[in-house]
Amino acid sequence: EVQLVQSGAEVKKPGESLKISCKGSGYSFTSYWIGWVRQMPGKGLEWMGIIYPGDSDTRYSPSFQGQVTISADKSISTAYLQWSSLKASDTAMYYCARGGYGGNTRKWFDPWGQGTLVTVSP
Amino acid sequence: EIVLTQSPGTLSLSPGERATLSCRASQSVSSSYLAWYQQKPGQAPRLLIYGASSRATGIPDRFSGSGSGTDFTLTISRLEPEDFAMYYCQQYGSSPPLTFGGGTKVEIK
């Protein structure tokens, strides 16, 4: 069974750094793109970016470029989303999801991780 | 970047009724690369439809997708109690970012 399991909820203060994770299993982790999606409280889904764990090729939405860093460690089948200095406006649920195979970035997301809730509050 | 507009924002219907959800793109979506997702409160989104009209594994046949170019539709033929949820469309026909629509809430009337 293809599964993505995300790290647990985080409560941080503004200015702090954070790295959340997404571990894949049940498939060849290095062969599929992994994406990150933000959902702010009561709001819709926002596509943040994708990474190809095989060679760490990464694409960002212009809205998130420079605001977050997406990375992956293929040796442990895990992708990451990190912030160097959190803001209150980063409070949201963050989902990872599996995307396309190989060089194909043009693919739907399936399956999705269970989500990681990030709360940033003074 | 392709902008997707979903309508209506909220659809109030009774179980057994037919639901028709719209997703309109700001420019043509290449090769009908359009997906639909369902999200229930407290849960991650779940893929329903890909390629505008292909049902994902395990999705009941009361869910159907149609459309091409800039206009796409998700139809739920007869609403079951478990179908009341948020629905999002996503285009994946362009280079990243692969954008989502704003969502349609299907609520019990």
Descriptive account of the structure:
The complex is a heterodimer of chains A (122) and B (109). Chain A is mainly beta and 122 residues long. Chain A is built from no helices and 10 strands. The termini of chain A are far apart. By secondary structure, chain B is mainly beta. Chain B is built from no helices and 10 strands. Chain B has strands at 4-7, 10-13, 19-25, 34-39, 46-50, 54-55, 63-68, 71-76, 86-91, 104-108. A 6-stranded mixed sheet of chain B has the order 2-10-9-4-5-6, with no helix packed on it. Chain B is globular and about 40 Å long. Classes of the chains: A mainly beta (122), B mainly beta (109). Chains A and B meet through strand 5 of A and strand 4 and strand 5 of B.
Order of strands, main sheet of chain A, comes to 2-10-9-4-5-6
User: Quick one: how many beta strands of chain A?
Assistant: 10
Query: Could you list the spans of chain A in which at least 5 consecutive residues all have pLDDT below 50?
Result: none
Shape of chain A: globular
Give the SSE order of chain A as H and E letters.
Answer: EEEEEEEEEE
Run of helices and strands of chain B: EEEEEEEEEE
Topology, number of strands of chain B: 10
Q: Which segments of chain B are poorly predicted (pLDDT under 50) over 5 or more consecutive residues? A: none
Distance between the termini of chain B: 36 Å
How much beta of chain B, percentage-wise? Answer: over 45%
Percent of sequence in beta strands of chain A:
over 45%
Query: What profile does the largest beta sheet of chain A have?
Result: 6 strands, mixed
- Name the biggest interface: A-B, 26 and 26 residues
Mean pLDDT of chain B: 96
Gyration radius of chain B, to the nearest Å?
A: 13 Å
Question: Roughly how much helix do the residues of chain B carry, as a percent range?
Answer: under 10%
Oligomer: heterodimer
> Main beta sheet of chain B, described?
6 strands, mixed
Mean pLDDT of chain A, as a whole number? 97
General form of chain B: globular
